[in-house]
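Supplementary Note 2. Why include the ligand at all?

Several targets in our set were suspected to adopt different conformations when bound, so apo predictions alone were not considered sufficient. For every target with a known small-molecule partner we therefore ran a joint prediction. The input for adenosine monophosphate is given below.
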Amino acid sequence: MRQNLILLGPPGAGKGTQAKMLVDKYAIPQISTGDILREAVKSGTPLGIEANSHMSRGALVPDEVVIGIVKERLKRGDCGKGYILDGFPRTIAQADALFSYLNECGCPITEVIDIKVPKDHLVIRLSGRRVCRSCGAGYHIEFNPSKDGGRCDRCGGELFQRDDDREDVVIKRFETYEAQTTPLSEYYKKKGQLTTISGIGDVEAIFDDICKIVDER
Ligand code: ADP
Ligand code: AMP
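The joint prediction is reproduced in token form.
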């Protein structure tokens, strides 16, 4: 069955962690707008230069830019059996654009999972998050450390801290999330597509909760 999934939740909720596990289980791609934008920043493209001016201060990249990126990405052949949207949509305008686009294709979203984590946990998660520069694998200095601390267990790549995981930007990202993204829970609840789960506890247990929801839908 086709799975067109959305993972909602604040920065640090575990969307990326869970999305990567869902990729393996359902053999569908993770579409992380944050990853796509960071790649553009790294390459120094005009898109990356524009995106960075927003990302570096914890603001959202303009809707039309992100909507265009996602529409292009959804056209790729690997989305034929579904996908996991991680970090998109983040505004009502993005959700409306996605809804219209998928309606035209006749393949709507099948499930929206809203991962709830209290802010004090989020701060600890984001300050300790480390990411592999080569393969993008995610770690946490305390909750999921790599074996040698500075290198990726999977590929040996260097682990780094995202610029926007520094404290001043994190505070702004939370404000942005509260103001612009929290209304999406109500939006998808009204459509009957939302399931809320706790994102606290063992990563595997949270993954089991998500799989049950996806399989039962
Ligand atoms: P998001 O994609 O929602 O911003 P991530 O998946 O990158 O969040 O997770 C943020 C940080 O929290 C990472 O360092 C990750 O290793 C860690 N993390 C993810 N899930 C859990 C969990 N259930 N318990 C503790 N730490 C977690
Ligand atoms: P993330 O990796 O999901 O935490 O996103 C990192 C940053 O990328 C965000 O703080 C935004 O600046 C930008 N970004 C990612 N996804 C979106 C989106 N859907 N809309 C606007 N900006 C986004």
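The domain at 3-28+80-216 is CATH 3.40.50.300 (Rossmann fold). The CA atoms of residues 18 and 173 lie 20 Å apart. Comparable summaries for the other entries are listed in the accompanying table.
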